[in-house]
């Protein structure tokens, strides 16, 4: 069952100036590409809450809130990671109010909820996607998972530097 919203007709709410409405909608967000890796956005249908206020005069003030998870490889250890991301974004659209008061997501009172949600999520994702905040990553010498082998893991001898270079390239 899918009832995802792409564009929502704000005019259809028939709000009087100063009046507001809370909308519970659903969007689907395609996987995000971060640092060359693909991260699925879960759940597949994301419940989003949009608060719409009709401004006096004309135009709308909008607030978007939702939570989603990114599923993909941890950028340190490459194991599966699934950080939850909380998203909150605001937009104002007042026709004739100049560029700052014009929302790219509102065209002719149609709100592109899906595009807004995707962009807001991209802005909210962590710089590094980690399996857990204190992920120890991989050993730079032998690529062992330091979460598993523990902090006492080390190497007696300096490895062949050419080999280390190769590892670096692979892990980048
Ligand atoms: Zn990790
Ligand atoms: Zn090692």
Which keywords apply here?
172 residues; alpha+beta; seven-stranded antiparallel β-sheet; three-stranded antiparallel β-sheet; 3 helices; binds zinc ion
Question: How would you describe what is shown here?
Answer:
The structure is a single chain. With 172 residues, the protein is α+β, with helices and mostly antiparallel strands. It contains 3 helices and 10 strands; from the N terminus they run E-E-E-E-E-E-E-E-E-E-H-H-H. Strands 2, 3, 4, 5, 6, 7 and 8 form a 7-stranded antiparallel beta sheet that branches. Residues 139, 141-142, 144, 153, 155 line the site of one zinc ion.
Average pLDDT reading:
90
Q: Bound compounds, please?
A: zinc ion
Radius of gyration: 22 Å
Helix proportion = 10-25%
**Could you list the spans in which at least 5 consecutive residues all have pLDDT below 50?**
none
Q: Quick one: biggest sheet?
A: 7 strands, antiparallel
Task: Count the E strands.
Answer: 10
How much of the polypeptide forms β-strand, as a percent range? 25-35%
End-to-end CA span: 40 Å
Q: Helix tally?
A: 3
- Indicate the overall shape: elongated
Order of helices and strands: EEEEEEEEEEHHH
SS-based class? alpha+beta
What does the secondary structure layout of this molecule look like, with pairings?
Layout: E1 7-9, E2 20-27, E3 32-34, E4 37-42, E5 46-54, E6 60-73, E7 80-81, E8 84-93, E9 106-107, E10 110-112, H1 113-124, H2 146-149, H3 161-171
The structure holds zinc ion (ZN) (2 copies).
One zinc ion (ZN) binds at residues 139, 141-142, 144, 153, 155.
